[in-house]
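Progress narrative, work stream C.
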Amino acid sequence: MNHPGESKEQTMIGPIGRRAWFALLLASANCSGSGGNDAGHAPATAPASALATSFACFDALAQALRVDAAHAGVTALALAIVDPERVLFCDGVTRSGPLPDDARFRAGSVSKMFTDIAALQLVEEGRLDLDQPITNWLPEFAPQNPFGGRITLRQLMAHRAGLVREPPRGSYFDAAPPSLAETVASLNATKLVDPPGARMKYSNAGLAVVGRVIEVVTGQPFETAVETRVLAPMGMAASRFARLDGDADRLLPGELWSHHLAPFPAPTFPFGIAPAANLEASIADLAEAARRFLRGGRDAGGAPIAAETLAEMWRVQDGAEASDTNPAKRGGGFGFGFWIDEFEGRRRISHDGAVYGFSTLMVLLPDQNLGVVLAASKDCVHPWLERLAAESLRIELARRAGAPSPPVADRGAAPKPSRAFEQRELDRRVARRDATFPPRPPPPSPALVELVGEYGFDFSILYVREEAGTLHTRVEWFFDDALTPAGGGDGDGVWDFPPGSLYEREQLRFVRGGDGFGDGQVSGAFMAGIWFPRRVIEPKAGAPFRVTPTGPIAPLMAAARAAALPESLRQTGHAADLVDLAKLDAGLRFDIRYATADNFLGAAVYPAARAFLQRPVAQALVRAQRSLAAIGLGLLVHDGYRPWHVTKLFWDATPTEHHEMVADPAQGSRHNRGCAVDLSLCELATGAVVPAPSGYDEFSPRANPWWPGGSAEQRWSREVLRRTLEAEGFTVYPHEWWHFDFSGWEQWPVLDASFTEIDAARAR
């Protein structure tokens, strides 16, 4: 996956990169770490044909990797630098220690280069032809072709066949992968997006077709053919396209993440597009593959194809004749299995891979006999991998030239691979005391509101949101696109992805009815021909969220009142000084849900609709109210100080699966200290609530302060509230956009005083 604007991988890297980050570097028992001398040595676990060498100039690189590790975490990361004869540097570790010798990374689209080699071997043997119609070998292959012309093997391997990006079945959205034959057969239900050979369109589906041709011609399962014909001859003994019984535990645990979610375990299911994405390889095997490529063709002990065939892999397949012209000057392009461009004036041959929980990158400078391979067990961290690769290349090129080793980039401000990126942006604004707000967007049209929501699967959610009066999507956790109505219509049913999208020249088509939805309700969408069911998020807009309590509220409340507040929670530096917010005469409005049954438990737990905060916290809230008044808005207070016994009631009454939304009484709550406040925005003049992505106290994905869905107006109000409160020393709670904690909250005691007791204390 390696073309600007086309692939999940390449869209994340280099000059066209999008935000993504990685962490944790590692030192492997599998590879030698950076040392302090120039003497070569061969570790016992290195490939038998490689001499592993360590140079002092790599010490700074190794240190930079470890500094990266301090900023964020991946479960494993490895780096290797090679020339044709040696592994110059190799380092790898896991979160829990050294990288096991046989540990495998999912290589993602790096798989494609090995699939293409297998096909080219068959071309050399005269069993395939690059420029004959693919139907010579797959007569049943018949996607709709309104353009005319025949699809060839060359076009498929160079991503110029005009096929869709993903097949309807067997894509990496398909958790129950069909066979390769069934995956390819599903393409007959698709329509070409371009005339064959006309232009580049990155396609995992196309490589699946190449793999199916290999199966048919060799009479072997694809995995068997590529492993015996390519992986074994290239010295990749620890690598597989299909997991064998008993070796699944060699696969490292990968992690997914997004801008608004903390990392979570990645799924491990294989894909029906095996030739495009299913390779699992150790860092030693990937380093050996890079070394073989640098050696040349089979006659030089390199890749198991002829030297002239390898040269064809490294020629941009754009219809032009082979020439000495630097392909980067033509904008770069695909060869077979590689993207060809330049690195600081040198010919650069590369491919990267991104698959659930893993990121890989192989970069070769063939004219300098130099290569770098990186693998990380976190999805979409290619900007950091690209930076490491560039630093590795510069350091080795300088060593060869006898020049001083160039410095590595400053790691001091490296962002974390989580919602911490957006938190850093907020911190930056707060540091400037930025009191300006973007203009308030208009409410979305009802027609768009019907389409906005979440679609898809836990491991890959498609977010559809409204922005600037049109639909926007976020695909595969990171990739944002502004859609346009197909054919210039109202867009109710079909929307086009824009140029530069992963799904350029494909469509999002909504479906109504079925699957438990009414005839007029949107039940899902075909995204680029792949079905994404609508994810039901409760409650429906405007309805209060409810949990089913673990038992009757009255006895749970009695037990909570009888419980003793842990003495350790009373120890603190500040004496309590709670202020009744209603007596501040600051224009605050109130909607204290816990004094009514209109809350998540469906029962009143406060004796009166009152809100208290510690005096400095209340003063900061008043300043926030005055700031908002300048733009005609105000604060609607839902909760402030909460007696400890109510926190215990919430914990005891809430089912375990929702415990992240309530505080653990053993630790005490910021609310118990009078240092947390729950708020919404309201119109200053009328008190009308300003729309937000979710309702108050809603235990759903929409409550996340960085949830990317909803309407522009809803996200604007959430941002204005957060920016205003953070400017006054509050921090938003990661699971609730309405909950803010005051800085220094830990200096106040946990309290269990009733509202009546607070009044009595104030009177005294």
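Work stream C, second folded protein:
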Amino acid sequence: MILQNIIFPIESICDEEELYYRKIGIPFCRNTEENGLRFIKDQRVNFDTYFNSFSLFKWWKYTNVNNVRLNLKLEGQFTVNLVHYYFKENYGFEWQVSDTYIVGKQGRTEMFSFDYKTDNPFGLLTFELMAMEDNSILRGGYYSSDVEPECMQRVKIGIGICTYKREHYVKNNMQNISRIILENNECPIRDQIEVFISDNAQTLSGIFDKENRIHVFNNKNTGGSGGFSRTMIEVNRANLRGEEFTHILLMDDDVIFEPESIFRTHAILSVLKEEYRDAFVGGAMFFTDRKYMQHANGEYWHGERWDSFITTYNLDRDMRKLNQIVENEYLTDANYQAWWYCAIPMSICRLDNLSLPLFIKSDDIEFSMRNLKHLVTLNGIAVWHESFESKYSASNEYYTVRNYLITTSIHHVGLGVGDIMAYVKKSTRHLLSNYKYRELELFYQGIEDFLKGVDYLKSIDPESYHPKIMAGGYKMVNADELDLPFSEKLYYDTLEIPNSKSILYKLVRLFTLNGLLLPSDKVVALGMWGGTHTQTFRAKYIIRYEPVSKKAFVLKRSKKKFFKNIFLYFRLSRKVKKRFEAAKRDFAERYEELIGVEFWEEKI
């Protein structure tokens, strides 16, 4: 059984070479036309990389695999070193060459067996090649194992993609998955993969051929929760027709992914141990503008920590570096998987167990809280995603707070009125000091809508309600189109402003409402989120700037809007004290009315 393939960079997916192989010593050029590596004599290449090392510990822990072979298609003469990287007790690693082979046969697949020791099944397995003559070529290869048939399960995956006006991403991804999997007669899983696309903007009709197992369903704009629920419904309907899908793989529409990630997901699902058959398989998230940088690999939701309720594991790792690759394999206590890449058993994604109608934000968290028992992550299973700053929207404040309160209510986190008002107070201070008056009003609206309970959430028509929420935000433009003079120097200079610890300064800020009552023409520039009181003190304008897209918008201080929001704060406080416990109880007792196919069929 093939567990994972040796893969090379593809420009349309990722050309970050050191995620795939690492050249040592004499430079050489990859022969892209032959989909391989052509060596000169004495050239060494290591494959101890994110995509081409083998995650020994994860395969040992979660699967029935108990032996591993490396299979390489080589031309010319090579020295092949098999290498084992071990975890050290307090992070870091050690390594040893377990075997060395000299091979010189032409155009054959050579097999090398690793010493798969169950008394030390930690770390990574990998290999190093050194050419012993010019024009030696690595054509490809794979890691494989002999797994007894009774230790395997049949796997068929329906890939569920929710999209809204992301035609470019969807077309490119479908081209890659078709070329490498769906239309590739040599791909062993080509008949076990189909794609189900929920087209929330209804702009993809007629583009894909159903015969190629890519299905598009026109859907109302019910957000991510509605779109992903639609794909769950359609895969269930396919099973009612006898298709026998075992898993659904949920993926965002604005990602780039290695089709090999799908192959590896299928492989690990096929050999899971009995106690992990209900596991989710999650993919890491990398950034599209820095394809070597991993943003997340496992996350933890702290429902009780209103001030910081998500911990992101393996944050901002440079996955070109060997120590980062090894440390990325340590187990975490992650309790949810974001739906940028999440494979879930169909025994869980039933027609009576779909997503809550949260539109966006926290739908994947709530679903995980309700269903996830085990999460398997693995080096080499990942997507590249746009940075969150480049997707900034003030409407997120509405959905984040409303959906957070719904999720904590359902899962009995135990937050009281005092906790919520502390959350509201801190958010109010932060948003007021950053002149995000509209965003603060959306934040308050999210809490008020939560207080209205289940019946109100059921009554919302997302297609008409979401535009109203969006209208309360800000319009981003190219930074050079702003009415104010702007330079990136202003942005970086503002970021360098240190927090002042002076008592006098703090008193001045306090009694002048962070400079609101003082005259000023000061202009500062910050990112889409954040900003300290010191950075925004006495500013008349705050330019919010996103350095990747070069987009920006301007916020202007306003005494009128400031005091309007203070009034709204006290009005909301009274409502929270009066209605919070009843709303919390309502969602805890009645949420099942929101997750069944009967409810969703009226919405989609």
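The mean pLDDT is 92. No further action is required on this item.
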